[in-house]
Write the structure tokens for this entry.
Amino acid sequence: MRVALVIHSLRAGGAERVATVIADGLARDRHEVLVLTTLPPSDDFYSLSDDVRRSWIGPFDNRGVVRRAWDNLVRLRRIRRSILRFGPDVVISFMGITNVRVLLALRATGIPVIVTEHTDPKSQPLPTPFLLAGRVSYRWSAFLVSPSHGVNSQFAWMPVGRRRVIPNPLPPGIDVMRSALPEWRLPPGRKLVVSMGRLRHFKGFDVLLEAFSRVSAQHPEWNLLILGDGPERPILDERVSVLGLEDRVHLPGNQRNPFAILERCHVFALASRFEGFGNAIVEAMACGLPVVVTDCESGPRDIVTDGQNGLLVPVDDPDALAAGLKRLMGSAELRRELAGRGAEHARRYRAEVILKEWYRLFDALPEPGRA
């Protein structure tokens, strides 16, 4: 089978990691795979196996209304030409704007397109032209795949028979990556609360800092570690200083192997205001960490059952998150219980398990020429 995956880039991010894991998994199963991006390989954070073909169509400068319109037409032509040259049996497209472009580019080719969403649409709404175009073009897709039931419910205007929920997969080889030496030197002799994600407002790291500040004096042996980078970095650095936590909070940036760090931490916390799924939650569970996460509208509640394999707390509530942190920081027994159940639960997100769901979806695709 020939499968083309189209995504804006392979920079650091949740959808980008998912695209990489799916592409490599399909190639391992001896399918022919193409990954097509707008940005060049020099921008990649994630790497692909040598068995995956790699191509790109950009860059574009996007300056001025007329130039942006022209660039969009050029993008469509290049997407269509690249995919037709490869001749796939199916195309998987990632994220809203790219989904619209791929559907427009491949209209009337007969190639089935599966569009995928990886964020809560409320957290990163599309520009109005793409939002309107999506309402039309998404109906041309063979299937719309969401990583959680919360995201899926926001596309109720799509026929239910053409919507699927397929969770995001864990990267393969996670056990090997856990045993590697961390890129960043952890503070010696400290217990660590860790969080991870792009430093954006909707990820709620400001709430996590507030919550940690409320329990830090009672637990002087604990530090907070936030993995990731993004536009909120200066704001968070300033907040750490205002809270007087410079010696207790660390922001080492993006890590190519975060699992080596997660393996050496003690509690995982996520304070997101919005999530599409919650890759970091499953990754933390797979590394044997107890988790306390916000019960945002989509994502975490698909993964965490409160009190069974983790703790769920209300969104935008530093006091509630602080209480959850305090429970875990203060009880090694509770940490062990939740970590054990969480690790067992995480097994259902292994790459080989999730790929089987993709293969079942491929089996349900329309016959060639009927997409």
Q: What stands out?
A: DSSP finds 14 helices and 13 strands in the chain. Residues 36 and 82 are 8 Å apart (CA to CA). The chain has a mean pLDDT of 95. The first strand starts at residue 2 and ends at 7.
